[in-house]
Amino acid sequence: MAKHRFSRRSANRRTQLIGLTAALAAAAGTTTVGLASSSSGPANASGSTGLNPSQAEALTAARIDRRELGSRDASRIDLSLASTRKAAADAAAKQRAAKLAANASLAQRRALALAAAKAAAARKAAAQAKALAEAKAEAKAKAEAIRRANAAKAAKEKAEAAPRVVLPTTGYHLTARFGQGGSRWARDHTGLDFAAPQGTPVRSVMAGKVIQAAFAGAYGRQVKVRHTDGTVTSYSHMSEFDVSVGDTVKAGTMVGRIGMTGNTTGPHVHFEVLPGGGSPINPAPWLREHGVTP
Ligand SMILES: [Zn+2]
After folding, report:
1. Is residue 262 part of a domain?
2. Centroid of ligand 1 to alpha carbon of 235 (angstroms)
3. I need a surface site. Which of 35, 88, 190, 222 has the fewest CB within 10 A?
4. Cα(292) to centroid(ligand 1), Å
5. Residue that wins the pLDDT comparison between 27 and 110
6. What pTM does this model have?
């Protein structure tokens, strides 16, 4: 009897152990078949014992208590294990999610960094292109300024180099041209006659040095000026001299006045141009070439 009860208790312990094993096995993800062998135990036992009904009932109640206790324990363990597994699974899932998020974040950061680098490179290239264009424009402007300055300098030098020329008198009219024939001249006319009222100032047409200021026969009172290019100009029939040989004159310096000295029928200045001091040439084109029109 005692052995039998012991055997029953042992069986109940086994049930508990089996339940625990099953729970552990379930926790480990495997299945168990141990529970089926013990479920028939209590039913068979009550039928073969010699106990009175109240004893049997008490025993049965105790057994049921123990079994239920064991079952509850097992359930608690199951629940606990399940809870633990769920927590572990949740943690793992969270970890995976965090890892995925971290990876995604890293990928995003890399993409953003790449985009930023590209944008920076584009900005740098644009800045370089702009700087290059500006440098080119600046160089072009500088070259243009230099070209203009050189052109202006050349023009100024040319203007300075070119002797300023004025007409020999004012308020005149031309009465005899170069090459014109006439009874008053031994040969064709060698100059240009500017007729003007007696006493009108006669001026050197260009800067130079006075090489003659004297009475010269048919030319009357005559002044000759040698210019820097070697050309000599002469002014004749004047009523007076206002310069002496050796004087330096400018374009427009008064050398005498309109008169009628020498072979002349009226007050005028006979003007001649003698390149290199040689034979006279037509004064009109020479004057025009030098910027004045008689
Ligand atoms: Zn003349």
Report:
1. yes
2. 10
3. 88
4. 19
5. 110
6. 0.48
Q: Which of 73, 98, 123 is the last residue of a domain?
A: 98
**When comparing pLDDT for 255 and 156, which is higher?**
255
Those residues with Cβ within 8 angstroms of residue 273's Cβ, 6 or more apart along the chain or in another chain: 191, 231, 232, 233, 280, 281, 282, 283, 286
Distance 219 CA to ligand 1 centre (A): 8
Output the CA 214–ligand 1 centroid distance in Å: 17
Could you report the per-residue pLDDT of 67-107, keeping only the tens digit for each? 666 666 666 666 677 777 888 888 888 888 888 878 877 88
β-partners of residue 232 are 226, 274
What is the 253 CA–ligand 1 centroid distance (Å)?
A: 21
Going 7 to 8 to 12 to 18, the CA torsion angle's sign is: positive
Containing domain of residue 210, as a range? 173-289
Residue 258 CA, ligand 1 centroid: distance in Å: 12
**Cα dihedral 248→249→254→258 (10° resolution):** 80
Answer yes or no: is pLDDT of 43 > 50: no
